[in-house]
Amino acid sequence: MVEWEAFDVKARKKVKILDAEVKQLKNGRWAVVGKSAETGIKVFRFLTKAEAEKYGKK
Predict the structure, then answer these.
(1) Bridge-partner residues for 46, per DSSP?
(2) Using one digit for the tens of pLDDT, what is the confidence trace for 4-37?
(3) Alpha carbon 26 to chain centroid distance?
(4) What is the DSSP string of 1-58?
(5) What backbone phi and psi angles, to 5 degrees, belong to 13?
(6) Domain count, the chain
């Protein structure tokens, strides 16, 4: 499994995403959604086209 990082607004820095889940949003973009390792709030990160093809499309 890939270890994802996203920006945590509460901690004001990049953190690891716990319980990461790759999802397709309503507008068709792919993103990784999960919880922040630092504060526990919900964080998400948009994927590039290459990452979406590799991890998202099933």
Answers:
(1) 31
(2) 999 999 999 999 999 999 999 999 999 999 999 9
(3) 16
(4) ----EEEETTTTEEEEEEEEEEEE-TTS-EEEEEEETTT--EEEEEPPHHHIIIII--
(5) -160, 170
(6) 1
The answer for residues whose C-beta is within 8 angstroms of residue 44's C-beta and 6 or more apart is 6, 31, 32, 33, 34
Report the alpha-carbon distance of residue 46 to residue 22 in Å, rounded.
10
In this prediction the pTM is: 0.86
Tokens representing residue 52 in the block: 């979406």
Contacts of 27 (CB under 8 A, 6+ apart): none
